[in-house]
Amino acid sequence: MIYDFAATAPADRYKLLAGCVVPRPIALVSTTDGKGALNAAPYSFFNVMSHEPALLVLGIDQRRTDVSKDTVANIRATNDFVVNLVDTGIAEAMNVCAIDFDAGVDELREAGLTPAASTQVRAPRIAEAPVAMECRLMDELRYRNGRSIVVGEILAFHVRDGIVDERFHVDTLALDLVGRLAGGGYCRIAEPFSIPRLSPADWAAGKRARISPFRG
Ligand SMILES: Cc1cc2nc3c(=O)[nH]c(=O)nc-3n(C[C@H](O)[C@H](O)[C@H](O)COP(=O)(O)O)c2cc1C
Fold first, then answer.
1. For ligand 1, what atom is nearest to the CA of residue 70?
2. In this structure, are residues 96 and 107 in contact, taking their beta carbons and an 8 Å threshold?
3. Which range marks the domain in which residue 22 is found?
4. Atom of ligand 1 nearest to the CA of 42
5. Percent of the chain scoring above 90 in pLDDT
6. Nearest C-alpha to atom 14 of ligand 1 is from which residue?
7. d(C-alpha 18, C-alpha 70), whole Å
8. Residue pLDDT, tens place only, 65-101
9. How many domains does the chain have?
């Protein structure tokens, strides 16, 4: 089956992309409006793109024609935001933050989440999140239908104690992050495995890498 995207309705493209590009990490983005009101909403058109500079991206729709979502309006107003990662412990609270509340409603309070002061940006991080990345707006790319790609530079990285060792190795299973599938579908990491990397010399020598027990 092949879909010519020029002839595929946007809603169907969304179903193909959101259903096949899985699992996606979830950014629970916390912002302020610059006057003190807090906002939080989940975004799964999200990923990290670079470590030097440290960059991440968010793909943000319009709420409706010519009306921005609060997240991008706040990022434009303040030039900063925090990306909090979502574990199973805050998955249901994350879903509360996705409710289409009016601007000015504090989703963190509605969801029972706790704002904590950031160190380098005005937006708060979420205390319950296992990871929080303080970001400065680097670029905003604007496309048709009000679509916006926000590029953030990560200035500070918070991680719950006990997850990262002194050699910066991360205990992936202890993080217990949630991935987004299609629609209301989510997943946990249940059966991780490793495939060792090969050098050109390994390959030339006939060495082959096989699936092996997970080494974080
Ligand atoms: C798990 C999840 C992922 C989402 N990902 C996106 C996304 O990538 N882009 C987007 O525009 N909306 C996404 N949404 C919808 C927004 O979270 C929703 O429109 C929210 O009300 C926006 O809030 P805001 O106006 O406070 O920014 C997602 C919702 C959920 C539940």
1. 25
2. yes
3. 5-213
4. 17
5. 93
6. 43
7. 22
8. 989 999 999 999 999 999 999 999 999 999 999 999 8
9. 1
